[in-house]
Design a protein that fits this description.
Elements lengths: L8 H12 L2 H6 L1 E3 L2 E8 L3 E6 L2 E7 L4 E7 L4 H17 L3
Antiparallel strand pairs: 1-2, 2-3, 3-4, 4-5
Length: 95
């Protein structure tokens, strides 16, 4: 099963595991909608990956994972700011 953006449950499950086990992402990258991105960095709440002019920024909240796929002219820091502000807002709402 895939979402409207073409991202499968399995791909999201691997990202969720990657928040706790970054070695899964450092060796295999981040795959979304069948496209494999190179893992750049992450924490227990944020994952960053990139491939060419396209990037991924993910954030884990208490009950959700926000997945953002962006491309130029959006810059990585712009995507990070938006995703993390939304994530922080959801956390303050208990979500």
């Amino acid at each position: 099963m895939t979402s409207a953006a073409g991202v499968s449950k399995e791909e999201v499950a691997k990202i969720v595991q990657g928040f706790d086990k970054t070695e899964l992402l450092t060796s295999g990258g981040v795959t979304l909608a069948g496209q494999r991105y190179i893992y750049l960095s992450g924490t227990d709440r944020v994952i960053r990956a990139k491939l060419g002019k396209t990037g991924v920024h993910c954030m884990k909240t208490q009950q959700a994972v926000i997945v953002s796929i962006y491309e130029e002219p959006v810059q990585p820091q712009q995507a990070a700011s938006i995703v993390e502000k939304l994530g922080d807002y959801l956390i303050t709402c208990g979500y």
